[in-house]
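ok trying again, last paste got cut off:
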Amino acid sequence: MRAFAVHPGAIVTDLMRSLPPEEIAAIQARLAGTTFKTTEQGAATSVWCAASAQLDGMGGVYCEDVEVATPVAADATSLTGVRPWRVRVSSTKGGLGAGGA
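nice, full thing came through this time. structure:
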């Protein structure tokens, strides 16, 4: 069994229909200049991860745009690429888990 992290990209779907107009405006402002994908284009990376022989023997990689993503610096302004995870307990309400550790 293999597992992949997949980012489908920015896709306009009916999931946004229940959002208040101000939230939709905030999302559009944050994603200004982003090329939106069709539902089919967004699904392509998930299908590729599930079926591609190119990923045989691999797992635990982050994929986007039908390829394994390239690592980028944690402070990169680009909306694409893999960033290192940083967990700051001070920025989580009540810490992590039941013990707050």
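cool. The longest helix spans residues 39-51. The CA atoms of residues 11 and 39 lie 6 Å apart.
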